[in-house]
User: Fold LysR family transcriptional regulator from Streptomyces qinzhouensis.
Amino acid sequence: MAHRVPDLGALELLLAVARHGSLGRAARELGISQPAASGRLRSMETLLGVALVDRSPTGSRLTPAGVLVTDWARRVVEAAEEFDAGAQALRTHRDSRLRIAASMTIAEYLLPGWLVALRSRCPGTAVSLFAGNSAAVAERLGAGEADLGFVEGLRIPAGLDGVTVAEDRLLVVAAPGHPWARRRTPVPPAELAATPLVLREPGSGTRQVLDAALAGHGGLSAPLLELASTTAVKASAVSGAGPAVLSELAVTEELAARRLVAVRVADIALRRSLRAVWRRSQKPAGAARELLSLTTTARATVTTP
Assistant:
């Protein structure tokens, strides 16, 4: 059975005619031409099968059926306005919170500055941050538990879209007392691969890049220590536990203070892209879009020659 329900615009026109007693003034209020308003009114009368308005040179007057339909129309329009207000409230609530999932290096060394800048653009936004490895960030996004993510590594995780926001270099570092810290020649890749290191856990972007770089040199040996945070890896290296591989972002102060020494490695490039990522089906919106704009505009370059 066909439904004979006029569209919302036609109902709003009928209410305007009732208010003004004139089709011309109703058309001006709604920002349409009088011929368009007349045609819309005739279409509604045809749809309903009754005359709604008596037209005369002195104005437009509702018929008895028109009075009844206008009363129904008012309730429909008010309900539509309530619906729109509710939807706007939902959008406002969504845009006033931002759930971020970020890999450790980005969370510790890049996000704080970005979030300070975001606060000036979106002062009412409540931000929550999950910090984990790149694999955990991808899982959060896939489960709908984050609006925007930041990962390190060789590629964008499956099911996500993304954009590069910075370039990073990984360094092999050791405490000043370690033999590598006093070495005058670069460490060969095979020696690096065979040496137990203090490393991040599998799933981290650092580990992914290192595994790929040493795959052709025998692969990584079993770690000396396997730790779940950049801070823990760095502290272990400073204490002299053994050499470690860390982002250059994470060891700037330690290198300057000579608490750690950068170890030269021959013939491998330990570089990676730092990326903002999101679900393919859900492009960043609201505060997430603003944060993405900040990161891509800054396009921080964190490598050194």
